[in-house]
Structure formats: C-alpha cells, structure tokens
C-alpha cells in the first residue's frame, strides 16, 4: 500500500501543478498584451518577437495539460522579466534631459541585443512545449465554498510578496524568486480549498503547521525587508544618500534572496507531501431521499404534554436570559406565523427550556391554544390539533389502494385540515423532536398564509435539522451554562447541604461538567448517593470523563466538519492550564498576533473577526462561556474538560504545542517546538529549563523555532520574575526565540526582562498585564513590530517616546491608576494603525494637540484627565478643550471612557460637544461635571450602554435619555443628577434592560408611568437615602427579573419579609436582594 501511494501521488500531484502553471501563464499573457497596447512604452523594435511569443503562449495555454522538460511557469517568469525591463526603461525616460536621453539611447542598443537573444530562447522553449501536447483529465472537483483560512494566513503573505514584484527598485533576480513564492502560495491557497471539502488525514494537522511555518518565515523576511527599505528612504539625506542607498539596497536584497531561497526549499518539501494531508473520499452515489409518507394503519396516540412533570425542572435562574430572548420573539407583534428553533447538543437543556416557556404565565395568557408535540410528524401534529378530522381521513384512506396519487391526495388533505384548524385559532406549537425537511415543507405550505400570530417552536441538535433561516424562521443557539448557573443547578440537583470542606471541590466540579446541564445533573445524582467526604467525591470526579457520553457529537463535528480556521482557533485553548478561565480579550489578542482574524480586503478589523470566531465556537457548544460582561459580551471562557482530553493530543500530534510529558529536548531532537506554555508543572519537560539553574546551554537551542511563549507562573515573591529573566537570556543567547511573535507574561509578578529581549524584533504581542512592573526597559524602542502592548495593572508611569515609531501597534493598554504619561510625539512618526488606547493620562503637559490628537482611527478610547497642581487649572482647561476637539474628530469610536479630576482626585470639569455624528459609538462612560448640559440630548441613537458620574445635571435626564432607541444599560452614579424628582414616561426606554441608581443623594421621588421601561430586567438602587418609596409603576413592568437594594434602610423595610407598603409593587420580580 505504501509503495502504491508513493508511485501514484507524484502523478496526481503533477496534474494539479500543471493546472496551476497554466493559470500563471494566463496572467503572463495578459501582462504581455497590456505592454504591447501601451503607447508610452518603447518596445525597442522587438514588436514582432513579442507578438509571436504572445500568440504561441496563448495557443499553448488553451491546448490543455502538457508534459514538458522545462516548466511553463519558468518560461512565464522569463517573459515577465522582459516586460519589467521594458517598463523600467520607459519610466527612466520620463522627465530626462537631453544628455540623459543620449545616454539612455546608447544603453537601449545594448539592452535590445540582450533582450533579443532572450526572446529567441523563449520562442524555442515554447515550440518544444507545443509538441508535447496531450489531452487533459481531472483529479477532483473543488467545491466553490469560501475558505477563510486561506484569506486569514495566506492572502496577507501573497500581498506582501506582490508588493516586492511591483517595486521598480528590486532587481530581476529577486523578483523572479518572489514570483515563484507568490504562485506557490496561490497554489497552496487553492489546495486548502480541496482540504476543506475532503478533510485532513491523521497527519494532515502536522502538515498544516509546516505550511504556517513557511508563511511565518515569508511574512517575517519580506516584512523586515520592506520596513528597512522604507526606513532608508525616509532617513537618508545629503550628497551620500544615493551611494548609501545603493549599498544598503544591495545588502538587503542579498539577505532577502537568501531567505527566499530557504523558504523556497521549505515550500518545495511541503508541496511534495501535500497529497498525504488530504483525505481521498470515494465518489458518492446519489440517493433518492424522497420517501413515501408513513400511512397510519393503526393510529398511535402520542403522549400528551400534561404527562410530563414540569415540577421536576429546576426553579433556578439558569435559563432566565434564554427564556426572555425566546419569549420576546414569541410575543412579537407580528401576525405572520413564525418558527423558532432551539438548537444545541444533546443534554444542553432544549426540552427543559421549551417546557419552561410552554408553562410561562405570559405565554399562557397570550396563546389561547398550546400544543406539545413529542414526535416530529404530520400525524402527531394533526392528532393534537384536529384529531377527529384526522382519524376520519385516516380510516377513509386505509380503504383505498396505496397508489402515488392516493398518497399525494392524503398529504394535500392533511395540509387542508391543519390550515383550517390553525386559521381561526392562535396556537403555540412545540415540536420536541428532530424534524425532516419533508415536514418543514408540509408545514410551510399549511401555515404560510396564517395571519393570527401562531408560533411554532422546534428543538434540534444542529442547524441542519431546522427550517432554513428567513424573515419568518429564526434559530436560537443554546449555549453551555456559565459557572454560576452550573453551580446553582448542581446544588439544586444534589438536594442536600454541602459541607464546608467539600466546597473546595467547586472549581473541579465545574471544570469536569463543562457547563452541560445533563452532566451536572448526572454528577449531582452520583454524588448524592456517596458519602460526603473529599476522598469519595474526588474518586467520582476522576471517573467522570471515562465515557465521552453526550460529548460524542461535538467531538465528531470537530473532527469531520469544523472549518480549518476554527480548528486552529480551538488549538489555542490547550496553551492554557486545564482549570484556567481564559479572558476573551487575551485570547483574541493571541489570535490576532499569530495572524488569525484577517479576511479578504480587510473589510473588518482582525479583532472583530476573531471575536466572531469565538462566538461561533461558543454557539457550536465547543467552548463554555464561564462569565459574561454586563452588556452580554464574553468575559471569560474555557474548553470543556471532555473536549480538552480529546483535543490536547491532537494539538501535540499536529506539533502545534510541545509534548511536555517526558520528551527529551536537546539539539538532536528533530521535532519542532512552536509554542511553549509554562504551567509550573514539574512533569513538564521544559520545567527544569525554565526554573532550573544547572542546565546545559545546548538545551536552549531546542527553542529556536518557538513563535509563542506564555508563562502561568503566578508564584509570589521575586522567584517567578527571575526565572523568566534567566530563561529568556539563555534562549536568546543560544540563538533561539528570534522568530518569537508572542511573549505573554500576564500575572507573572515583576518579571525582569533582559536586554537581549530587544533583539526579538519580530515580536507582535507583549503582555505584561498584572505584573506590577515598575519600569519599562529602554530596549522597547527596538520592538517596532509590536501590534499589542498591554501594561494594565503595572506600576509604570511613563511611556517612552519610541512608542510613536511603532507603526503596526493596534492595541495599547495602560494603567490609569499609576498615571502613565505620554511623551511628546517625534517628528514624522505616528501610531497610524492604533485601534485601542485605554488607560492613558492627560495632564497640563500631555501632547494632545500635536500628538494624541492626530490618532484618528481609534475605536476604543479610555482617558483619565487629571490636573497636577491647582495653579495650572487654566492650562488644564485648555487641555480638556483639546481632548473634546479630538473626540469630535474620531468618527469611528465605538467605546469612549472619559474621566476628569482635579489635583486632589475629585471630579472636575468635562468638556464635550455633540456626539450625534458618532454613529458607531455604542458605549459611553463619563466622569466629571458636564460643562455642556445639553450633551444628554446629543448622544448618538446607536448608544447601547451609558454611565454618568458626577455630571451634576440639574434637569431630569430620564426625560431626555428615554428617547435613545437602542439604550439597554443605564447607570446614573454619584452626583450625576442633582435634582429631587425623576419621571420615567410612558413608552420611554423601550429597550432598556439594566438600570442602576447609585448615590443620588438629592433624589426624593421617582415616578414610573404605565408603559415605561417595558423591557426592564434588572434594577439596582444603592445609597439613594432620600428616596422613601418605590414607584407604583414598577408593578406594571412584568419583565422585571431582579431587584437589588443596597444601603436603603427605608425602602428595604417596605418590602422586607414579603410584606409592607411596597411589596405588591415588586412581588412579581424573580429575585430580590437586600444588602445593608
């Protein structure tokens, strides 16, 4: 079998390569034709030869696949060289004087002689190719499915290579190498499409990692070349400029040529083995999927819904958000018949959620008729809705001959009965079973013309088993439960008190269950019958993942159907410790740093694309969201334990992550270590290298190909920082880490970065969050390729002026509590691609007008404006005006946090003009006295989240803010409103879900009209001591889910013990919390 594979693969591979070379030749014919049509380009009398070559090349291209001794690609490159020479000669004559034209005319004679000979050789080669024509054949049919992984990792490299080809100053030899790389990468791009259709073999993941290696090498080498070329053009001046440029150009091109030669060798090796990475699937025979409908011989009555024990469902808030979201769609004011499909893996709670909705009081009141259908068939549906008519028709049908005409007539009559029954009654129909496409089609015909508000709710394990999305068909993706929800379900299902000594197992229980309700309830059932001891519970937990159980479908989906770009995203979770909750912010930063998240044409920032990738993994139940932000976005997440057990070996087989279990890292070890994660585990082979002292220096050369190093050493004291310093020093001095893109030391206490880190010029991500470093090393000015620099929760107080040179920097996180200062901008430098600037300090001397004010592409801005001394108040006011003008110019802002304090740390003046033109602004946080009191009426309509503090607004802001159509979160904090009365008007705040009043000391009365705050879910009132009673209108807000009163003694007394004057106003709320 092995010999057969080796004998067959090259032949198949050669046919694919022939098609690729034909595409390259087609591009060359276009370039040649364009050259001959260009009047401004002198062809030096070579017109006849060029036309002949153009004709023969087109003929060969259209003949088909050839077998040749010299590749068509090489001939195409030779022709492109001729085209380049002629174009360059033409550009040199533009604006040339008489003397220069004479010199060029003489060189034209020499060049014509050289080109003439070259063209003759090309004609001979083309003639030889033409004789070797034979008929073409196809290997496989490629799907037209768009493949994101190609756009993510290959297309950016192709664009960089193309920029070298189009550079007129680059020599023909280097251009030829660049063309070869370009075309090979284009070929790989196409091959990845075939992999997406057919799938990867067992060794395919490792082959893919080699592809990524080659792409990283190319991106690094070409990026460095282009950067140095541009730097030379900007910095060199004076009479020696041309001489210096020529020398540096020669050296840089020589270096690039060597690098491209290495990359070429690597690509050739990869291409030879590419067919071993793709699965060869047999041709599928079309199957007639149309089956005759089941004829009801004996009518089987489905179990009615009332036989299900709804009381068994936990009365806990694990489905609160899901219930609200689905009910919003069910109760929508739309007369058309709408379908909602609840989609999720087995055991995630689809049926439980559907039951809770089915029995909800609002649903009961809204739908006069409700039907629970446990079997997805037209028979079951008709039995529930029109039993008598259906039974009569079934009996009649049994007496007739079962011909095709009879079956069609039966289906037609069934639809008529269903339509007639539903037309006059508003139903909620729940179909708790997997549906076939035939049932959707039948239902679609039967309910398509309904206009009485009927709704159909499906449950399904995957999207392919649901009605196709449309303006009437919706899909709701049920996600794994958060840690808080999981623990609430576990304690409820356990049905007994947990001893204090067992609470230490909480984290382990949550990790093992992975947020899956079925696993949580099964584990609770197992533990409820065991002795409540640490030993007994730990033993049960160890055995929990012996059976993949409900995770089987997810594992199958990952292995067979998950797209390549999402598989790669999933790999990154194994870099983190098994019980680690991964911050979404950190994960997305890593993805972007390693080139994920990019798409064709850069239509969206890579951070946005990466966030969508994470959401997709969450929706497919592959990732558990352990904690969410108030606005619903993902805060922290993890790979469920059952999936991690399966996926970690896959990552090691693919050489994505080093195998730390006992491997021998040495110079003789041929396996590549691409990513290194220090989990502070003594069993890891790298532990001694990082934390040991007496290690041979030869060991560290094993890390020469590492692209990412993450440390999770959270030990207290200085040991962790010293170990990092020693390890980095040893690796870099041994020639390792030079390809490092990611250095993430988040939570490592005061790491000491050696001077050698300045040599890591390819570094893109430097994570120093929560390290409490006190100074930023001076060599930071060498790391000019940084894309993300995270200094939040550090003790650094000054950003070096070299920060302005980092042209690729996209994310800059600072710590506002340590007042990190910006130094003035250097001339001819700016952070042109900066997207996020968070935590910066602005004082009287900060470079706002001639520095920060030039950053116009920001989407996230967080500033703390603070005066240093009272004598500088006038200068500080001028700075605040400059900040306001800067904000006005930033039209792409999405998140804005702006704080203003005086020299003593008390809120001070805040200058802002109208924000109506900031269409993308969705989150706004303002601390300070608004000098423009009309600003509250000049917020953009797309605003979703608003926080005001110390604004000192005298006029009731609720009657202005209630006009914002998309506002969902409103927090009015200390001294934001100084008046005594507030009114929430009817129909105001249509979408507001979260409302918080904190320390509004002057507030005495709050009234809520009928119809106001119709979507409110969470209400918190804290330290509003003069507010004596809750508004009567709260009892009309049936959506209220949670009420929290903090340090409100009078209000608390009015509802305590489920009685009092205000209890009837909020008794319908699901959860009420009182804190003193």
UniProtKB/TrEMBL annotation:
Q: Disease resistance protein winged helix domain: from which residue to which, for each copy?
A: 575-643
Q: Which UniProt keywords apply?
A: Nucleotide-binding, Plant defense, Repeat
Q: Does the keyword Repeat apply?
A: yes
The identity of this protein, by name, is Uncharacterized protein
UniProt domain Disease resistance N-terminal: residue ranges: 153-234
User: Which Pfam families did the record assign?
Assistant: LRR_14 (PF23598), NB-ARC (PF00931), Rx_N (PF18052), WHD_DRP (PF23559)
Task: Provide the Disease resistance R13L4/SHOC-2-like LRR domain boundaries.
Answer: 733-1042
NB-ARC domain location, by residue? 320-493
GO BP annotations listed: defense response; response to other organism
Question: Which InterPro entries does the UniProt record give?
Answer: Apaf_helical, Disease_R_plants, LRR_dom_sf, LRR_R13L4/SHOC2-like, NB-ARC, P-loop_NTPase, Rx_N, WH-like_DNA-bd_sf
Q: Which residues form the signal peptide?
A: none
Which species is this UniProt entry from? Manihot esculenta (Cassava)
What GO annotations for molecular function exist for this entry? ADP binding
Q: Which residues cross the membrane?
A: none
